[in-house]
Write a structure and sequence with these properties.
The protein has helices at 7-12, 30-38. It has 89 residues and is mainly α.
Length: 89
């Protein structure tokens, strides 16, 4: 267990102590998300993202699972650095 045992503590936690930057305050374009990925930073889908997959939403349409917009890593995998997916022609 971490020193932040319940979700209410996460609101008060310093951002640097969290493994992933959840609930970022700014909206990132996909090109900005790519730049963040080059630094190893994940960009997590939020409720504001209209293009988020429905599979990560609950019945009310709220985003409930953490999923990176760039590398598609989710939940526990987000402790690893973000990696751009390789595409092959």
């Amino acid at each position: 267990m971490t020193e932040y045992d319940d979700e209410s503590d996460l609101d008060e936690a310093p951002r640097s102590s969290l493994p992933v930057e959840y609930g970022h305050d700014e909206d990132f374009t996909f090109s900005q998300a790519i730049e963040r990925a080059k630094l190893g930073l994940h960009t997590i889908y939020t409720d504001r993202d209209k293009d988020r997959p429905s599979i990560i939403c609950d019945n009310n349409g709220q985003t409930t699972l953490a999923l990176c917009r760039v590398c598609n890593m989710a939940e526990i995998e987000l402790t690893n650095p973000c990696r751009l997916k390789e595409t092959h022609d």
